[in-house]
Amino acid sequence: MPTKPTQSFGRYGEQLAKTYLEQNGYQIVITNWRCSIGEIDIVAQQGNMLVFVEVRSRHMDSTEASFESITKRKQLKMSNAAEAYISEHQLENQVWRIDVIGVAIPRSGKAIIDHAEDALGW
């Protein structure tokens, strides 16, 4: 089944985010982890911290709209999915946080990547 253009675009943004994380010393644990609650785009390790990453990509000249798309409902869903991952993998004593990476891909020019650590602490 062919993917929709928006899915391909989203996967491209996730690949850019994954590369960004790796270049900044994160180890990727898994991508696109799914459970009944939803999906976690990227699970990564940064030192002793487990990091759940939501990637938001937009065809824009800045990442502002990417971050604005994280509603209270989406934040709750992200938190619940992270807790499901922790439970399923028996990592109850693991230190963790949720980050958001905004990816802006202008119609011309280089992609812009902004990373908000501990995004639920906004």
Task: Give me some keywords for this one.
alpha+beta, Trna Endonuclease, Chain: A, domain 1, 3 helices, 122 residues, 5-stranded mixed beta sheet
Describe this structure in words.
The chain has 122 residues and is an alpha+beta fold. It has one domain (5-121): Trna Endonuclease, Chain: A, domain 1 (3-Layer(aba) Sandwich). The protein is built from 3 helices and 5 strands, in the order H-E-E-E-H-H-E-E. It has helices spanning 5-23, 64-68, 72-88; strands at residues 27-34, 39-46, 49-58, 95-104, 112-116. Strands 1-2-3-4-5 form a 5-stranded mixed sheet, sandwiched between helices. A hairpin with a 7-residue loop joins strand 4 and strand 5. The radius of gyration is 14 Å and the shape is globular. The termini are far apart.
Task: Break the fold down into its secondary structure elements and pairings.
Layout (H helix, E strand, L loop, with lengths): L4 H19 L3 E8 L4 E8 L2 E10 L5 H5 L3 H17 L6 E10 L7 E5 L6
Parallel strand pairs: 3-4
Antiparallel strand pairs: 1-2, 2-3, 4-5
CATH class: Alpha Beta
Q: In terms of per-residue confidence, which ranges show pLDDT below 50 for 5 or more consecutive residues?
A: none
What is the H/E string? Answer: HEEEHHEE
Helix content: 25-40%
* Overall mean pLDDT: 91
How many separate domains make up the residues? 1
Widest sheet, order of strands: 1-2-3-4-5
Please identify the oligomeric state: single chain
Which sheet architecture does the biggest sheet show? 5 strands, mixed
N→C terminal distance: 38 Å
